Each structure stands twice: as C-alpha cells, then as structure tokens.
Amino acid sequence: MNKRYRKTIIAGNWKMNMLPSEADAFAKGLSEIMGKKPPCSVAICAPAVIIPAMVKASKGKSIDVGGQDLSVYDKGAYTGEISGAMLKDAGCKYVIVGHSERRQYHGETDAEVNLKALKAFENGLVPIICVGESLEQREKGLTLPLIEYQVKAALNGMSDAQVKASVIAYEPVWAIGTGKTATADEAEEVCAFIRETIKKLRGSLISRGVSILYGGSMKGSNAPELLGKPDIDGGLIGGASLKPADFAAIIAASAQG
After folding, report:
1. How far is the CA of 252 from the CAs of 19, 133, 218, 236, in angstroms?
2. Active-site positions?
3. What is the radius of gyration, based on Cα positions, of the chain?
4. Vertex 240, ends 239 and 245: CA angle to 5°?
5. Which of 103, 113, 41, 101 is nearest to 70 (CA)?
6. Do residues 95 and 120 make contact, with C-beta atoms less than 8 angstroms apart?
7. Residues of the chain with pLDDT under 70
8. DSSP character for 76?
9. How far apart are CA 54 and CA 26, in angstroms?
10. pLDDT at position 257
11. Cα–Cα distance between 43 and 216 in angstroms, integer?
12. How far does Cα 65 stand from its chain's mean position?
C-alpha cells in the first residue's frame, strides 16, 4: 500500500496534563526543534481549557490543535459537555473519539463513538477514531474480531468521503501508559487488518486514503521501526508528547517512514 495516498500524522494526546500558561513555551520549543516545515502533519489534542491558548501559541508554527472528546449533542442542558461547534469555533481541526480511557472510565459504547464521529464531521472536524483491545482480549485471540467490529461500528452511516477523511488510531489498551509496546510487526498486523476491513466495506480507493495511526507508548527510540511499516501512517502519542524534544524526535522519525 503506497503512503503517497494519505497523510502521515503525528498527534499528541495531552490527556489531563499541562496548563494554559505552558502552551506558548511548548509551541515555541517544538517549532524551534522541528522547523517550519515538519515532514508530517503535527497536532496537539489538548484539554478543553488549554485549546484557546494552544491555538494562539501555534499560529504560524505548523501545529494543528484538536480536542480530546466531544458531545453527541449540539447544545443544551448537558453540564460539562463540549460540543463540536465549540471545538471548531475555538480553532480545532481534530478531535479524538472513543479513546480507551473514555470507553473504560465513562462507559462509552461503540454506538456513542459512531455518533461522536458523525458529529465531528457535521462540525467540520476530523475525528481520530480509537480502536483497540485489552491484554485479556488479546490473550484470548479476540484482537482481530474485536477490531473489525469496532471499525465497522465507528464508520457506520458515513459517506465514502467521510470514511476516507477519517483517521483511525490503533491503541492496544495493554500498551497505553504501561511502557509496553506492541512490536512493529504486531502493530503492522492490526493496522493492515484495519485497512483491509475498510477495503471490504468501501473498496481499495477509500481504504488506501485512510490514515491509520499507532497509539501505544511510541517514543523516539521505537518510532522509526513503527513508522517504517507500510500501514502505520503516524502515531497518537501520550506521554512523549508532553516535552517538545521527545515529541520532535517522533516527528523527525516520520521522515523515514
């Protein structure tokens, strides 16, 4: 599969870290290291209160900004929720949908993930749709059937154009924040399977255009091997996205993919 048909994306997921007051220094530091023309698309998915500061700090620095979640509702009496329109108006390009922590801690279902992905498109946002298995599921041989179901559920009701514009992030739950990492071959096996699943659903012209990211303890040391695989088009980066130098090392590695 030729990567020329799709974007390479390195997206940082800050989770519940950093402060609005730290956005400017981070953006300046990252920009100085990676330069004005990084070898891939770069994004920071920040906590909601940091988004305005990050958008301002990233102006002119080849850094896009994203949210970490959005509501299935447009507006109304939903205390604590953030709508797609709010994220878009604040300056976001991306939004993470269905992260394993949302699924685990907030009981987010595959049906909700689908609704949120559709809502992202309604508001002009690109959804980064997360799929992945737990260690128990992997050990029981359920990885591929589960991933197939999650992908099919997430893309349900989308147009071909929306499917092609979607970003899928494979995040093995057992490798998130644990220091464990799927081997490059293990990650490639699942990412290739995701692309094949999309191909069966919508055809090769659509599947070859979908950017598939790996999210699971990617860092500068293992990024070259992971990003060198034919079906891994970038990374959804957690801890290594909190320091400009660490994040920039992964961005630099994308040039080798």
Report:
1. 25, 28, 13, 15
2. 99, 171
3. 17
4. 145
5. 113
6. yes
7. 1-2, 257
8. S
9. 9
10. 58
11. 17
12. 12
- Between CA 111 and CA 115, with CA 154 as vertex, the angle to 5 degrees is 50
Q: Would you state the structure tokens that stand for residue 73, as one six-digit string?
A: 């509702």
CA 148 to chain CA centroid, nearest Å: 18
User: Which residues contact residue 213 at a Cβ distance below 8 angstroms, ignoring those fewer than 6 apart?
Assistant: 9, 11, 128, 167, 168, 169, 170, 232, 233, 234, 235, 236
pTM of the model: 0.96
Q: Contact, 11 vs 240, CB < 8 A?
A: no
Start-to-end CA span in the chain (Å): 13
Round to whole Å and give the CA distance between 100 and 96. 11
pLDDT value at position 1? 47
Helix/strand/coil for 94: strand
Are the CB atoms for 132 and 147 separated by under 8 Å?
yes
